[in-house]
Design goal:
Layout: E1 16-21, E2 24-31, E3 53-63, H1 65-81, E4 85-88, H2 92-109, H3 124-162, H4 169-179, H5 184-208, H6 215-253, H7 256-262, H8 267-305, H9 310-320, H10 323-349, H11 355-386
Parallel strand pairs: 2-3, 3-4
Antiparallel strand pairs: 1-2
Helix pairs in contact: 1-2, 3-8, 4-8, 5-6, 5-8, 6-8, 6-9, 6-10, 6-11, 8-10, 10-11
Length: about 400
């Protein structure tokens, strides 16, 4: 904010400080950004008597924020040296600018007051407690924001199901292909290897007791109830959940989300619901595929290591694994799909800043998705145990 123009006309002199007497100086010229080159400090005083220094500012022709800042610094130096002074004849329109500059300088130099229970050098225990409090507050805030996001998505889903014409089928089919069909090779390979590992680890123990045939029980129950749903959800969380976050986060950074809102397009309807409905379809099917490949891997390892033929394995498998055990594993898949989509999209919408924020939120999305999937699987185990399933 300038009291007058920031550039002085050519006929006006630059800012200057002249000594009129032992205890009197005069300020003159243009105290503006373009006229301050010759002003750096006050002239040396002739003596150190107690009389106040008279500063005549009546000859200042132009004055702006640069001049106010320099003059405020000069007056601050006098205060620090203990020199009393009296500023005279400064026009009112300039005085207000000088007061603002001195006030800002004082506010900048003033140290922040410590709270009643804080100190400038807190002890390590207090510092750790403070960090724990901040982390807890951040976690609670993020959990509440996630719950709000889930609620908004539930409302949008109910509205879309009530009016099927508003569903966006093309994005949904695209997500079924990218999150489901394209994930078949990696899900199938890891499930097959996991079945091989389970049968191989159990082979030595079962052989000691002559219980080779029970490898079918081990592979069937472990794969269908626990390993296949869990490994499929973890793979999809790392593969598709991160892609959801990166896509929405990039759109948020590029202000495409704001553009959608300006056009009256709901980001939830466009970006979240197609992914949610697609993964609710794709993840159970991927789990069935993982069940099949895991059992095949265990069957081949049982034939190789334990001498259990495919016919014997299949006969025992049908007796050991009930339909309930199979459905228990399938029932986990929609819940895992809900967790992956909600966390992935939620972290995408929370992206702010630039590309580094996209990477940070993507990492956070994968970690939180996998963590919540494992927690959900543990809760399922407790619930099914209580229900004797």
């Amino acid at each position: 904010m300038d009291a007058t123009r920031s550039e002085a006309p050519a006929e006006l002199a630059d800012a200057a400080i002249a000594r009129l007497g032992p205890r009197e100086i005069a300020l003159s010229g243009c105290w503006t950004a373009s006229g301050m080159a010759a002003v750096s400090r006050l002239p040396a005083l002739a003596d150190n008597n107690a009389a106040p220094l008279a500063i005549d500012a009546g000859r200042i022709e132009l004055f702006d924020t640069a001049g106010a800042w320099v003059l405020a610094r000069l007056l601050q130096q006098l205060n620090e040296q203990g020199v009393a002074f009296e500023l005279r004849k400064l026009p009112d329109r300039y005085a207000a600018l000088l007061v603002a500059a001195r006030q800002h300088m004082a506010d900048t130099a003033r140290p922040k007051k410590a709270g009643p229970r804080s100190s400038q050098n807190p002890s390590p225990a207090i510092a750790r407690l403070e960090r724990l409090g901040r982390a807890t507050g951040t976690a609670v805030e993020q959990a509440l924001a996630l719950l709000r996001f889930i609620g908004e998505t539930a409302v949008a889903l109910a509205h879309s199901l009530a009016t099927p014409g508003t569903l966006r089928w093309r994005p949904m089919l695209y997500n079924i292909r990218s999150a489901g069909f394209d994930a078949l090779p990696i899900v199938g390979l890891l499930s097959f290897l996991l079945g091989v590992v389970v049968a191989y680890q159990g082979a030595d123990q079962l052989r000691q007791y002559g219980a080779n045939i029970f490898v079918a029980d081990l592979v069937g129950l472990s794969m269908l109830r626990e390993f296949a749903p869990l490994i499929t959800a973890i793979i999809v969380a790392g593969r598709s959940g991160s892609a959801f976050t990166a896509q929405i986060g990039t759109m948020s950074v590029n202000e495409e989300i704001d553009a959608m809102l300006t056009l009256g397009i709901s980001p939830l309807d466009m970006l979240v619901l197609p992914k949610l409905l697609a993964l609710l379809v794709a993840l159970p099917l991927l789990t069935v595929f993982a069940d099949l490949l895991g059992v095949i891997g265990g069957m081949l390892m049982a034939q190789t290591q334990l001498g259990v033929s495919i016919d014997e394995f299949g006969e025992r498998f049908v007796k050991a694994v009930s339909v309930t055990a199979y459905l228990v594993g399938i029932a986990k898949a929609p819940v895992f799909a809900l967790i992956i989509v909600m966390v992935g999209c939620f972290q995408g919408f929370r992206t702010r800043g630039g590309a580094d924020s996209v990477g940070r939120q993507t990492t956070r999305s994968v970690v939180q998705s996998i963590f919540l999937v494992i927690v959900g699987d543990a809760l399922f185990s407790v619930a099914f145990s209580a229900l004797d399933l």
